[in-house]
Amino acid sequence: MSFLPRLLSLATMAAITSTASAATEISFWHSMEGALGERVHEVVEGFNKTQSDYKVVATYKGNYGESMNAGIAAFRAGQAPDIIQVFEVGTATMIFSKGAIKPIQEMSEEVGNPIDSDKFVPGIAGYYSDSNGKLASMPFNSSTPVLYYNKELFAKAGLDTEKAPRTYQEIRTAALKLKEAGAECGYTTAWPAWVLIENFGAFHNIPYASKNNGFDGLDARIDLTQAGFVKHFDFLSEMAKEGTFTYAGRGDAANSLFSSGKCGMFTGSSGSRAGFEANAQFDFGMGTLPFNADIVSEPLNSVIGGASLWVFNNKKEDNYKGITEFFHYISSTDVAAKWHQDTGYVPVVKSAYEATKDTGFYEKNPGTDIPFQQLDVATTSASRGVRLGFLPQIRDVQEGEMENLFAGKKSTQEALADMTKRSNELLERFEKSNK
């Protein structure tokens, strides 16, 4: 064989070999930035190193709202990613996105590599399952709200640095002492609608909405005029007037108020722990979400936040095989346990909690088991969680009315009545658009 034909033959063989060995690329849009974004990329790189058939490419696409909107727009344009991370309040919207979503349990069964829903924490699996009990999306970064407190400010105020307040009444007492000791802020919260309404209702067994909080039908309606909500917001309003509670804004705006050392107590996502450990210049402790002792003597469970991973429809079978492999990887005991330990998100598989416990992690890091313990409680129809359409917009409405209440522009009754009315107008729109 002459040199040129042989060279061409070798080039052809190399091209064939390259094509045969090229990894199937799987696109993954997420909303994790900073320390959490680094953890996501570590998980993705870990999977990519375990095999050579698939390559997951993770891309930050903005916050949860921005990413979800980008995903919907991309699907309509025929350019959707394979996987997208969607916050829990987008669950109803995604489930009712006709033809857009490939349910993950169905996908895994079709490619012959079933995902076992029984390995997940029941409350988390139930939240992300369809009406037939099948997983619609992949549990990933599930969180629940907890209390964080600044141990240095507690010491300065003469408070017990190893004991977190358990009730709102204890929060108020501690906040008064913190303010007297010179703290700029006693107590604040991130995600006000999630913490102060949705989780408050679950914790106190007060229904947030009819139809089992929306799980049983599109015709669910919200009622925040119930006595428990009135008592709760009367109490918070009094705290705001005396300066012991600071409303810091919508979403996670309050995070910086705590991490900067200005506020002594903060309720927010368990998933915020990684950021606080990286950025806070002080020791902090963790406690359970507070409850109102005038309403219950012991609370029920808190509800989940965070996000899950959704798969878009109309992808190639090979992509679905790779996605299924990736989902098996991230829900494996060791990977899920490390993700939980590194971030503060709840272990979504039961074995990850047990593995973490066996290492002594919870003993060395007091309070880090609180999120799991808050969720590992038998639920009622009022505490299972919330599945309502337009929930991001509903939260926005409710937080806007909170601003009116805490600014003294409306009474508790007026603010809660307006929250209820405006929230239900959105639910009516969602119901009509999905019939």
Describe the protein's architecture and organization.
The chain is of the alpha/beta class. It has two domains: 24-143 and 304-364, 3-Layer(aba) Sandwich (D-Maltodextrin-Binding Protein, domain 2); 145-302 and 389-433, D-Maltodextrin-Binding Protein, domain 2 (3-Layer(aba) Sandwich), CATH 3.40.190. It has helices at 3-21, 34-50, 64-76, 91-95, 104-110, 122-127, 151-156, 168-180, 192-203, 210-213, 227-242, 255-259, 273-279, 317-330, 333-343, 350-358, 361-364, 370-375, 391-406, 412-433; strands at 24-30, 54-60, 83-87, 138-143, 145-150, 185-189, 245-246, 263-269, 284-287, 305-311. The strands form two sheets. The chain has a five-stranded mixed beta sheet with strand order 2-1-3-10-4. The chain has a five-stranded mixed beta sheet with strand order 7-6-8-5-9. The longest helix is centred in the last third of the chain and has 22 residues, at 412-433. It starts with a helix and ends with a helix.
Features:
5-stranded mixed β-sheet, alpha/beta, D-Maltodextrin-Binding Protein, domain 2, 435 residues, 2 domains
Topology:
Elements lengths: L2 H19 L2 E7 L3 H17 L3 E7 L3 H13 L6 E5 L3 H5 L8 H7 L11 H6 L10 E6 L1 E6 H6 L11 H13 L4 E5 L2 H12 L6 H4 L13 H16 L2 E2 L8 H5 L3 E7 L3 H7 L4 E4 L17 E7 L5 H14 L2 H11 L6 H9 L2 H4 L5 H6 L15 H16 L5 H22 L2
Helix pairs in contact: 2-15, 15-16, 19-20
